[in-house]
Amino acid sequence: MAILDLAFIIGQNAHNALTEDILSGDLTAQLLPETATARAQVITRQSGILCGTQWFDACFMSLDPACKITWQAKDGDTIHPGQLLCELNGGTRALLTGERSALNLLQTLSATATRTRRYVDVVTGLNVKIMDTRKTLPGLRHAQKYAVRTGGGYNQRAGLYDGILIKENHIAAAGSIAAVLDAAFKLAPVGVSIQIEVENMMQLDEALDAGAKLILLDNFDLDALLAAVQHTAGRAELEASGGITLAGLREIAETGVDRISIGALTKDIDALDLSMRMI
Prior knowledge:
This protein is α/β, with parallel strands linked by helices. Helices cover 42% and strands 20% of the residues. The chain is elongated, with a radius of gyration of 22 Å.
């Protein structure tokens, strides 16, 4: 996956979140003296994996560069209900104005990391990678992919620009698996991944014969996955995808596939319950 500069991504995400919320100004915060300062704490009401501390910091630092934030936990840590996550010291207006945007980012990225860790834990001891997809929240693609890594997962391509994934419509438009793979091999620069999606064993054979080295097995059942792994015999990396649930994940991993891609890591998340209070 092509990774953009993380500091730029964090700044952009924080800016967009604050602009959406504040626009022309925080009318309620203006009820308080401009020079007032305050202290606040953030605690979690749920267990999970913490993620997004830099995004949280960026929201407050852009409003008050003198704001001091002291973290008691770091990205990747397991957190528990009632745990103190951080303390803030800064301008009262800045703390109140930035609260919602900062918490939104922190709880969303923590939710992504937490869900990823659940899937990763299920396949502990097996030689398989839990992969994300492009099914991310709009505007938070790179942030959520960071959260997937924090949770122990792996990233697919970041977008359409840094990897080739050939799906059924691409094959149909090109005329055949052999034709579309030939075009991909000629087009792709060194280092750009080329993956092709197949829907049955016949297509798997066509892809292997055409030189595919990364093959996505779309909606194969357990027996078909096992047969595909045995038939491929290491000639290509195999990735299971489609209809993957937490309950059936271990069985899929035990077929011997190399990768399992799961859209739910980033799109089916429940934000962690975090709270910020003045003290």
